[in-house]
Design the sequence.
């Protein structure tokens, strides 16, 4: 551990992870676990900020998320994997930070405005929803993270985190480093319908899907929308199936598809079958590990308990310093 920079990141428990989650975040975490002291957690309290009316599924989703992380290759030997709500110190720090966070910082937050509009079927005029970035700031600085790997959509939250850390240090003395945003490249692969891959759009392929599911889902994918007939030449550059080929097929196959598509030498049905084969092959070990962990729930429990202990120790240490700094010790 020593000498490695600490990074912290979280995901809201949305249920089984799909390829968009994998290529947009998890794959990056798996790479980073070798070079950083990683704290990765399931943000179950954050899930409540928008789903407080329907919280029943959150515990199962939280567990599924840990299982998917382990199955995809996050190693509990290399990183600390835990559940946000297990570490009550996040809530205490959130409370203290809320004392010093100006409300206009939160009202200006672009994701706040966007989400209020996008989720207009929910009443999000709550204190918890407005304070979402304050809780996120607590999640991060409680571990004195130096970096936070996130997608571009989260960048404003990390900016607010730095501002809150700076304000705390200014008011009470230096306790927190200001964490850097480590931008994750956004995934080029789209959902089956070419919209962003999302569980709620029902256009996703999940890490735990069976080969039959995968074949059926791939068969439904929209290809080059200009290509109407088998005899029309296609354009792989604008085809989502081709983006998948680039990840899941070997270089030779990618080159062949690239050429044959443009001359109508290959049809989309066949092209998808070839891609599905590579995808099924790549996901096989993840699916097997998913099965393994559902047969060995005690191993998942052990990971969650170990993460809770490790994260809890660090969080308790920071909170002792925080209480002293604000004269509450
Ligand atoms: N807000 C993040 C998201 O929706 C999840 C999250 C919560 C997070 N706390 C965090 C990410 C701390 C990074 C660091 O994706
Ligand atoms: Fe896309 Fe393949 Fe069809 Fe070309 S042949 S349009 S790459 S699915």
Sequence:
């Amino acid at each position: 551990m020593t000498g490695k920079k600490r990074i912290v990141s979280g995901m809201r428990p949305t249920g089984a992870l799909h390829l968009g989650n994998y290529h947009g975040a998890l794959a990056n975490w798996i790479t980073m676990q070798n070079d950083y002291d990683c704290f990765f957690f399931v943000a179950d309290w954050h899930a409540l900020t928008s789903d407080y009316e329907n919280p029943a599924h959150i515990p199962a989703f939280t567990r599924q998320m840990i299982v998917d992380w382990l199955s995809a290759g996050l190693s509990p030997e290399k990183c600390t994997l835990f559940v946000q709500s297990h570490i009550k110190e996040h809530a205490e720090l959130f409370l203290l930070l809320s004392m010093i966070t100006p409300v206009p910082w939160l009202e200006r937050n672009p994701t706040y405005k966007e989400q209020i509009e996008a989720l207009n079927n929910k009443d999000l005029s709550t204190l918890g929803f407005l304070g979402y970035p304050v809780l996120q700031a607590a999640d991060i600085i409680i571990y004195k993270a130096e970096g936070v790997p996130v997608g571009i959509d989260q960048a404003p939250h990390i900016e607010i985190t730095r501002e809150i850390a700076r304000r705390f240090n200014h008011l009470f003395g230096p306790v927190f480093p200001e964490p850097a945003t480590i931008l994750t490249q956004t995934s080029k692969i789209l959902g089956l319908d070419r919209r962003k891959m999302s569980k709620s759009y029902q256009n996703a392929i999940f890490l735990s899907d069976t080969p039959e599911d995968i074949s059926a889902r791939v068969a439904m994918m929209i290809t080059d929308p200009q290509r109407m007939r088998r005899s029309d030449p296609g354009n792989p550059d604008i085809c989502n199936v081709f983006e998948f080929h680039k990840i899941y097929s070997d270089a030779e196959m990618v080159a062949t598809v690239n050429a044959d598509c443009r001359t109508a030498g290959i049809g989309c049905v066949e092209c998808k079958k070839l891609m599905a084969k590579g995808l099924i092959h790549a996901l096989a070990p993840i699916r097997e590990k998913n099965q393994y962990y559902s047969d060995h729930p005690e191993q998942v429990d052990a990971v969650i308990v170990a993460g809770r202990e490790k994260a809890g120790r660090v969080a308790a240490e920071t909170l002792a310093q925080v209480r002293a700094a604000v004269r509450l010790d």
About this structure: DSSP finds 14 helices and five strands in the chain. The domain at 6-189+297-325 is CATH 3.40.50.620 (Rossmann fold).
